[in-house]
């Protein structure tokens, strides 16, 4: 058997949302800006289902703005290193799991953040998938820089919009939200994309939903394993497609402090402030396979069960809504603003 452990970075290993933090700290009113673009990303993926667009393309949309406000590759790397926050016990957990079986990280986050992480914890960069971004490669003139900054200033003044599960189409949205989306469509897909700096929107390919599934297939090629031998632990919207892939292939799919998308795609929900439980489950998976892990969870036969901050539950139709509420509430408490994002 060629068991392997595959994890996201932000959430199961770190407490950051690196893209959000970059916007917050380098752009004026960057927190509002990122929240607006993130919701727009959710709309394009969930409601409009825009062609050639995928969950996680937020990292594409914000990149021209980072460039306009003077962010460089070096600044991204230094910032990521200085602001890296590990989940308690995450370093030790990842190291112990990697000693047991091949271990990979598949992350939507920018290259600079993954490089900073690998250097700090000693994880092999060769076993990491990330969104490649070389900001220094792109050129922005002064006039375009002013235009992009004007767009950013406009975006933060647009009415923030949200949508619930009852929204199925553009027409279901309030008129104010429709107006915001219309303006964002023009900014990103007409005005910005026609600029020289708009090359970023065409050339950056975030490791979002589709690319995560492809990255997992690449991991399997490296190990010679199958989907049934994958222990997959993730937490967000970009993981939904790959969670379904793992589940259909007989592997073990775990939402770790996940949002509604992760809960919808996973077989098991874990809510915890520490990564220790992950080693216990991964070790059982490596030793005895998925069936044994599911037995351990259903019967509560794991040592971490004695800890009050560990909650493990197999997901089904009867508890899914409850688990979404519990997991998202804990996620926000643990990660702050980053816990409310996709």
Characterization of the model:
The protein is of the alpha/beta class and 342 residues long. It folds into two domains: 4-16 and 85-133 and 207-340, HAD superfamily/HAD-like (Rossmann fold), CATH 3.40.50.1000; 18-77 and 134-203, AF1437-like domain superfamily (AF1437-like domain fold, Orthogonal Bundle). The protein is 52% helix and 11% strand. It is built from 16 helices and seven strands. A seven-stranded mixed beta sheet has the order 3-2-1-4-5-6-7, sandwiched between helices. Strand 4, helix 12 and strand 5 (252-256) form a beta-alpha-beta unit. Helix 1 (18-26) packs across helix 2 and helix 11 (209-223) packs across helix 12 (240-248). The chain is globular, with a radius of gyration of 20 Å. The mean pLDDT is 93.
In short:
The chain contains 16 helices and seven strands. With 342 residues, the protein is of the alpha/beta class. The longest helix is centred in the first third of the chain and has 19 residues, at 30-48.
Looking at the structure, the CATH topology of the largest domain is Rossmann fold
Number of strands: 7
Q: In the CATH classification, which architecture of the largest domain applies?
A: 3-Layer(aba) Sandwich
CATH class of the largest domain: Alpha Beta
How would a textbook summarize the main sheet? 7 strands, mixed
What percentage of residues falls in helices of 4 or more residues? 40-55%
Tell me the fraction of residues in β-strands, as a range.
5-15%
Mean pLDDT: 93
């Amino acid at each position: 058997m060629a068991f392997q452990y595959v994890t996201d970075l932000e959430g199961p290993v770190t407490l950051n949302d690196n893209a959000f933090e970059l916007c917050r700290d380098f752009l004026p009113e960057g927190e509002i800006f990122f929240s607006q673009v993130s919701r727009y990303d959710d709309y394009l993926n969930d409601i409009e289902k825009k062609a050639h667009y995928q969950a996680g393309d937020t990292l594409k949309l914000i990149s021209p703005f980072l460039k306009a406000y003077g962010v460089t590759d070096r600044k991204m790397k230094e910032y990521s290193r200085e602001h890296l926050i590990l989940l308690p016990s995450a370093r030790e957990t990842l190291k112990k799991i990697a000693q047991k079986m091949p271990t990979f990280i598949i992350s939507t986050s920018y290259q600079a953040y993954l490089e900073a992480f690998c250097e700090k914890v000693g994880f092999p960069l060769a076993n990491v998938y990330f969104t490649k971004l070389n900001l220094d490669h792109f050129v922005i003139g002064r006039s375009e820089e002013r235009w992009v900054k004007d767009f950013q200033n406009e975006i933060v003044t647009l009415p923030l919009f949200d949508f619930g599960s009852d929204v199925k189409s553009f027409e279901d949205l309030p008129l104010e939200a429709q107006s915001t989306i219309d303006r964002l469509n023009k900014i990103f897909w007409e005005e910005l994309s026609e600029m020289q700096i708009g090359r970023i929107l065409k050339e950056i390919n975030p490791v979002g939903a589709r690319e995560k599934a492809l990255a997992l297939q690449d991991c399997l090629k490296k190990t010679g394993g199958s989907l049934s031998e994958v222990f997959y632990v993730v937490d967000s919207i970009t993981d939904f497609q790959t969670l379904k892939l793992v589940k259909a292939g007989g592997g073990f799919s775990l939402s770790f402090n996940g949002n509604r998308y992760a809960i919808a795609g996973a077989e098991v929900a874990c809510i915890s402030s520490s990564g220790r439980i992950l080693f216990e489950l991964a070790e059982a998976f490596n030793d005895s396979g998925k069936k044994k892990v599911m037995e351990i969870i259903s019967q509560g036969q794991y040592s971490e069960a004695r800890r009050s901050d560990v909650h493990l539950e197999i997901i089904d139709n009867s508890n899914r809504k409850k688990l979404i509420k519990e997991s998202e509430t804990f996620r926000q408490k643990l990660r702050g603003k980053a816990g409310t994002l996709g």
